[in-house]
From TrEMBL:
Name of this chain's protein: Organic solvent tolerance-like N-terminal domain-containing protein
Keywords for the protein's UniProt record, in alphabetical order: Signal
Any one GO cellular component localisation term in the record: cell outer membrane
Species annotation: Brumimicrobium aurantiacum
Coiled-coil spans in chain: none
A GO BP annotation: lipopolysaccharide transport
N-terminal signal peptide: 1-27
Short name of any one Pfam family annotated for the protein: OstA_2
Length: 534
């Protein structure tokens, strides 16, 4: 990640070479005019020495070459013109069309085709001011810094240099181009003492493989950590991350995202969103909390998992292997929904375990048990295993009756999200209502004949459209049919019966928002709709 911040190294080295050396030049009280000029004369009115041809001034270890100059000893200033060349120890060279030095006011200004060069970098601009007293160098009409040995460059409309504080600021249309990254920003600031950089305004950091964006941010070169803020995003070919704030630590291989977090991994077809997320590459895990939502994208439908906290684990190649969800877990996918207190999803083996009062809805059927295990095949639900107190129930239309299948252990087999078969092992019980359909004048009338109650050790049931179509009872079945008018209330429902349709998630949005938030969203929507209409 450091490579893209060579921009700050450019600013540091060039700024130090140019302006710190200029500051030393002012420590001597006057410029010395060396012998060899073609012509020199004194203007008595102004006190200026007018020097022409092969003009050379010296101040300590710095020499100034020019075609002509106005030199005033009383006012301690020089105005030099034509082929200006300022040289310091043969390591720093400055060129321009004209220059002004005022040692009393400690001020210098270069005009026209300004070029400043050391052994590593070169600055070109239209004009450059240097205020030694206030320790600031400024260009205000576009500047370009380029590397002599590489393709690195930095350009901006305005540049401020504070050599004593080692602070460098670039403003308006700041563009850095390096061998690996390009950075575009409105304002970029760097302090060499703290080795910390700041971006302000829309900032784009791009290379062949990645695009990053923020509207405010900072980066610490010493610690190799940084933050992207305000609509921050990282966009790679197969991974997209959005958040209000993104923190990155290279030594720890750690990412922290805050507020409006959105993560999409198109390679593994998963996504996450929430209020706060941490990704730890060293430990191979990530977690997200606050309106936390995981998405498993599939060809036909998407599985959504919501909980207070979600953990996602990956192998050394970054491929997801396991997901864990804790507290108030909810599932939503097409015609299948579910709730439980905690969940473990073993992606590698296609197994999902729901713990603590789990409930699963598949079309019009409700499945409950102490623990529910869901097994996938070809990324689709193949089987649900209900451990202890298993129950499959469906509501009988327009009544307070329920078809029920219960037992110690149960296997429910699915075709997509429809139950096709249920095998009950141990203490098996079935309660279902016998119906007969008559068609009169194109109207179908359902006549309920009674309730069939059968107990057996083991039972296998076949389903069509959620209703029992076939039944096989094993080991001394005990059955009775009650007419509708004579149903025994004690046998109307099995011991573990529960019906909690009001808890069934209606959509993934319904899962992540509280009742108060839903009410606020609806009020906001109504207000916006009203303002648009009127």
């Amino acid at each position: 990640m450091k490579t893209k911040f060579n921009i700050f190294k450019i600013a540091l080295l060039l700024g130090s070479a140019i302006f710190l050396s200029s500051g030393n030049a002012f420590s001597q009280d006057y410029f010395e005019l060396l012998e060899g000029s073609d012509d020199i004369r004194l203007d008595g009115k102004t006190g200026n020495y007018i020097v022409k041809g092969n003009v050379i001034f010296k101040k300590e270890n710095t020499k100034l070459y020019c075609d002509s100059a106005y030199y005033n000893l009383v006012q301690s200033n020089i105005r030099a013109y034509g082929n200006i060349h300022l040289n310091k120890e043969d390591t720093l060279n400055m060129f321009c069309d004209s220059i002004f030095f005022d040692t009393k006011k400690e001020y210098a200004k270069m005009y026209g085709n300004v070029r400043i060069r050391d052994n590593e970098y070169k600055l070109t601009t239209d004009s450059l001011d240097y205020d030694v007293k206030n320790d600031v160098g400024i260009y205000k009409n576009k500047g370009l810094i380029t590397s002599i040995s590489s393709s690195d460059s930095l350009s901006s409309v305005i540049g401020y240099f504070y050599p004593n504080n080692k602070q460098f600021n670039f403003r308006k249309n700041v563009v850095y181009k390096g061998e690996e990254f390009t950075v575009k920003s409105d304002t970029l600031q760097f302090n060499a003492n703290s080795e910390k950089a700041f971006f302000y305004g829309p900032t784009y950091i791009t290379n062949e493989d990645m695009k990053m964006y923020c509207e405010k941010g900072w980066y610490n070169l010493k610690e190799d950590i940084g933050v992207l803020e305000h609509n921050a995003s990282i966009d790679r070919e197969n991974l997209k991350i959005n958040a209000d704030s993104l923190f990155y630590s290279a030594p720890d291989s750690l990412y922290i995202a805050k507020r409006k977090v959105r993560i999409v991994d198109t390679t593994n077809k998963i996504g996450f969103q929430g209020d706060y997320a941490i990704n730890d590459d060293k430990k191979g895990y990530a977690f997200i909390t606050g309106h936390a939502l995981a998405k498993q994208f599939e060809d036909e439908d998407t599985l959504y998992i919501h909980a207070d906290t979600l953990y996602n684990y990956a192998d050394s190649s970054g491929k997801p292997t396991m997901m864990q969800a804790y507290n108030k877990v909810e599932l939503f996918r097409g015609d299948m929904q579910g709730i439980c207190d905690s969940l473990v999803y073993d992606k590698a083996n296609g197994e999902m375990n729901m713990f603590h009062d789990p409930t699963l809805w598949a079309q019009n059927a409700q499945l409950t048990s102490d623990t529910i295990s869901i097994y996938e095949k070809d990324n689709k639900i193949h089987r649900a295993f209900l451990r202890k107190n298993g129950l499959v129930a469906t509501a009988v239309d327009s009544t307070n009756y329920y078809n029920q299948v219960a037992g110690t252990l149960m296997n429910a087999y699915f075709d997509s999200t429809q139950i096709k078969r249920v095998d009950i092992i141990g203490n098996a019980k079935t309660l279902y209502f016998l119906e007969e359909e008559d068609e009169k004048d194109t109207v179908i009338i359902v006549n309920r004949q009674g309730m069939n109650r059968i107990y057996a050790s083991n039972i296998s049931l076949g389903f069509v459209d959620g209703d029992i179509e076939t039944a096989t009872y094993r080991d001394k079945p005990d059955g009775i049919v009650y007419p509708m008018s004579d149903i025994d209330k004690k046998e109307e429902r099995v011991d573990q019966f529960i019906w909690s349709i009001e808890k069934r998630p209606l959509s993934w949005q319904d899962m992540i928002y509280s009742e108060e938030e839903k009410e606020l969203i609806l009020k906001t929507f109504e207000r916006l709709k009203h303002s648009v209409l009127f």
